[in-house]
Structures are given as structure tokens and as C-alpha cells.
Amino acid sequence: xxxxxxxxxxxxxxxxxxxxxxxxxxxxxxxxxxxxxxxxxxxxxxxxxxxxxxxxxxxxxxxxxxxxxxxxxxxxxxxxxxxxxxxxxxxxxxxxxxxxxxxxxxxxxxxxxxxxxxxxxxxxxxxxxxxxxxxxxxxxxxxxxxxxxxxxxxxxxxxxxxxxxxxxxxxxxxxxxxxxxxxxxxxxxxxxxxxxxxxxxxxxxxxxxxxxxxxxxxxxxxxxxxxxxxxxxxxxxxxxxxxxxxxxxxxxxxxxxxxxxxxxxxxxxxxxxxxxxxxxxxxxxxxxxxxxxxxxxxxxxxxxxxxxxxxxxxxxxxxxxxxxxxxxxxxxxxxxxxxxxxxxxxxxxxxxxxxxxxxxxxxxxxxxxxxxxxxxxxxxxxxxxxxxxxxxxxxxxxxxxxxxxxxxxxxxxxxxxxxxxxxxxxxxxxxxxxxxxxxxxxxxxxxxxxxxxxxxxxxxxxxxxxxxxxxxxxxxxxx
Length: 479
Description:
This protein is mainly alpha-helical.
């Protein structure tokens, strides 16, 4: 019988700690002797037997929650224990991480693969190349953990603990050259963490509901009468999960291979999830549209724009896109205002512009002045009256004017079209309301001086442009 055979256990019964210790010492002496015989270094190659015993002594407890079936497929855990017993803790940590990542990928594949890729991969170019289980290896470990956390497979604590183990794996395991020392207790603790949070992973109620919803989206057409029932769990979504679910629905909708049923179902659900999203997430969807458009992905650009338009989310489009569209919308509004039957056609054009500008009144600098002049002009009316269906939109937009825009609006009386409208009683009523709306927005001294002079002007406002005192105040804006 060889030396190696003599130190092997002769049965499947667990060995007593003393026997394990003796066996490890004999094996270490034999192995290091062979390495030394080959002329190779032996110092620092193996962890001390004491640390190995400490790790192996805690393995049973660490694996106690793992079922028989789960143990049967945990081949990397076996390799981890073997490496730990030999004294190669850095290799053991690497095997433990391999088991963790393999199990996370298996859980992802069993939950919803497309949904996962939509969350894990933010680049549209990369996302297009990922579709199958085999493609999971293209997602790096940090994105794997992040996406599992965002879709609800891991909670915040689990993701934090796993990221710590990932860090140690990168800096203290055999994955990369290093001189870090790992203790037996650390190794056993990391094993317990991976067992608790990954190998025995179970879905919470919200994650289960999300999984069922995504399955339903791909299944039968959703009955509009059941939308409230189907989305009842939305009230329990935290910000993270709401953002992830929205990203998943968005991904399903812009998929060029989607079915008509999927498209219809997402259109039903999208207005329900949109109010739960923060501005950063909404801008993210606008940016995805911008990237599709820039890359000439015409179908995906069209599909993403449909969802943005569905919830009046045009104000979240990228600024270059918004500048072009606001410019076009301003032209459309002025065309309606100047055209036949303008009181009937203005509301639609005003609403389009209002939706593009959004609640915050954010207008790109390149079109800001044009926008302020157009809104002011249409708010004053055309001398015959004001479009009552549109005036509410104009008022909303004026209320979000910036200080520079308010200053431009205050000087609108110089325009012949506005001056003409100011001759009418309706135009004068609108002008008086406009001054009240602008007053709190005027911050510069010159603007406030002009406002004071306008309020004190004794004649009708259509005469403002020809008054010498007003003209002198206007000179200050040219400097």
C-alpha cells in the first residue's frame, strides 16, 4: 500500500477531528516533500493544518441548509472542500465563487432570461447579441449580482455580502496573483453566505408576482377589465423593483421579434408602471430612444418612441432630440395660431408643445427664445380672442418660464403682431395676467425696472413700443 493510500479514509464515515488532523499533516509532509524534491519553493504554498481543520470543522454547519438534491449538483463545493483540505485556500475561494456564479446563472435562466438581460446590459448594442442561456457568460459578475438584486432574486443584504466575496475572490483567490491570507473561519463563513443567499435561494412574493406577470405578458392577451387586479402588486414595489420591471417591459416592447400580443399587453401595463418611476429612470428610457435613433435602429427607435408618447413622456427625450422637436412644435403652434379656425386647431398644437417641455419647463438653449416668444404671442391672442382650449397649456408653460424667458416675454410688446393684439380688450386682459405671471420670475434689475414702468404706463399697452421712456429702458437689454 502506498503512502497516499494509507492516508485515504477507508469508508464514507466522517473522520474524527484528530484523525483528520493527522491525515492532513501526513499528506502535507508527503506533498511538500515531493515539491521540494522538484526544486520548487514550499514556503507559503499551503495554509497551516490548523486553519484547514478550522475550515473543515465548520463545513457541516455551513451546508446544513442545503438539500440533498442541491448538494448533489454542487460540484464546485466539492472542489472547494478538497482544495481547502489540501491547504490551497485561494483555490478554494475560487471554486466557491464558481459555484455561486453558476447557481445564480441557473436561477436567472429559470426565472426570465430576457428580463434579466434587459436589466443587466444597459448598452443596446451589447443587448442585441444576448438571448440564450449560453450568453449568460457574457455578463460580468458585478452586473450579474446587480441585476439579480434589481429583479428581486437577491435582496440588498445578499447583494452586499456577495459583492464582498466577489471582491475577495478578485484580490485573494487563485483567480489572480496575490499575497493575501485567508483564514479557515473566513472560508467557512463565505461558504455559509453563498449557501444561505444563493444555493438555497427562494423567491419572495413580489418576485413571484413579477415572474407571473412577465409570463402573462408573453401568453394570452391581457383583459383590460383585469388590469387593476393584475397590477395590484405594483403598490408594493420599491423604487428598485419598479425600475427593473419597467426596464423589462420596455425591453419586451422594443424587441423586434415581439408578437402582437406582447406589444398590446405592454401598452396596457406601461401607463400603470410609469408613475412609479423617478426622473433618472425616465430620462434613461429617453436616452435609449436617442441611441436607437442615432444607430439607425429604426424599428426599435419607433417602438421606444411609442411607449414614451403613450405616457406623454416627451420631456424625457435627449436634449438634441428635444431641441429639434420643440422647434418643430413651436412652428406647428404658430402655423395653427395664424391659420384659419385657429381657436379649434391651437389646442392640439399647444398640448404637443406642452408635453415636450414637461412639468419642469426645461427647454434647450438653442430654442429657448423662440419658444418664449411663441407662447407669449399665442397667450395674448390675435385681437379677436384667445383659444380657450389652448390657453391653459399656455398658462402652464409661462408658469415654468425661466428668468431669461420671462424677460423675453416681458418685451414681447415690441412685436407688431403682439402690439396689434394689445389694442383689443381681450388682448389687454391677457397682458395684465401675463405681467402677474412673469413678475416673480424677473430677477435682473433692468427687467424689474421695465416691469415697473409698464405697470405705471398711462396709455394702453399697444403704445408701449413707441414711448421714449420705455425705449430708454429697452436700451439696457442691448448692452
